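Hi W.,

Here's what went into the run:
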Amino acid sequence: MLTPYSAKQLFDWLTQAEELLILDVRNEEDFNRFKVESPVEVDMINVPYFDFMEEEEASVAKVPRDKKVRVVCAKEGSAKYVGEILIAHGFEDVGYLTQGIVSWGNMLTDKRINDTADTYELWQFVRPGKASLNYGLISEGELTLFDPSRNMEFYSQFAEAHDCKLTQTFETHLQADYISGSRFLAEKTGAVVHAHAGDFLGASFEYVSIQDGETYKASPKGPDIRIVHTPGHTPGSTCYIIDGKYVISGDTIFIISLGRPDLGGKAVEWATMLYETVNQKIKKMDPNLQVLPGHYIQWSEANEDLVFEKSLGKIIEGNASIYGIDNDKDFQKFILENIRKQPDVYAEIRKVNAGWLNPEDDEQSTMDLGKNECAASAYAAQQAS
Amino acid sequence: MTEFNVDQELDCKGLNCPLPVIKTKKAIDAMESGQILKMVATDPGSKNDISAWTSRTGHELLGTDENDEGFVYFIKKK
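Here's what came out:
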């Protein structure tokens, strides 16, 4: 039978390690640029839909028959088209992804991070299509979001399900790799946006300009949100320390590597800022703080509950080759050696996030697709592996 | 851009994949070798699909254009 499935269903099957085959029927170029990344190993093949048009038998023969087949395409139509061909060839359990790979790219999933005995709830929202992470903090019926994406529907459903109201958002920095939802959420709900002027000076929307050392509240009696200005990835990069226990680190601290400081085109200058931040700010934080980063490089960084969270002490230990660099010159050298091209679309995404550009919804979806390129040494690590 | 001596035109505006490629294949199949098809689509996905499909099948993608009409392709049958 040919049945539709959603990106969320696919994610759930993958996390439950269901035996299935992902058949991606997009052209090779699009497939290589961006594909489903699974938390667990999964069989995946790429056979473009037009191969099924040209050589039906030979293409069908490429698809193993011993597993359920889940077809993925750009929008939906081609997956359905190929699905019908497979069914006609006797395949029994075939599904097609509704709304295509874009829906995978936008999908968010949620995981509770903190102890259920706490008076507040801290949630990690994973966006597998982007390898990016954002956060929600619920306290006394008020919801604070950190680095929300533009998936409005997800946040409103989340707020409804948890009986809370969005009151404020905090940006860790001006994102270049995905479109931020903060200003759209603010327009829709009246939530107050908080951001650092180092990145957001001149933004077209209103925001509260946060300063190093300030403390905000998740709700009147809720946990503290302490501001630590950590320039380097960008001049306005900021970490948020929640309840003295967690640090939402944006693109500054990652579980593997650090946020690359070359995206703004001033690699040496920003690398120097980052070096200062590492030594004067990060290393002086409590090593027991649980780091909640803005991205991951691969699923293997997640813990057994599929949460991306690690103590600062362990992160510094695990990235000794970076944190151990003891002078500015060598640090610059490390950064320069790891520089790689950033996607062309990043310049445009920055403008959208500062409110200087307002593309149509469709165009935003396209701009927003693809895995992030934000870690300093991801490229080097991938080359080495 | 270069003008081609188009033998046949195909309008795929408003159609999403797989239809532009399916219709293009049907049109090309009915044409003579060496003839040129002009196809216009509005689905941005057609860009990489048409180029991948032509290199797979051996038909020649003579040129492409992006204008008010949409994405325009000139394909010569092998």
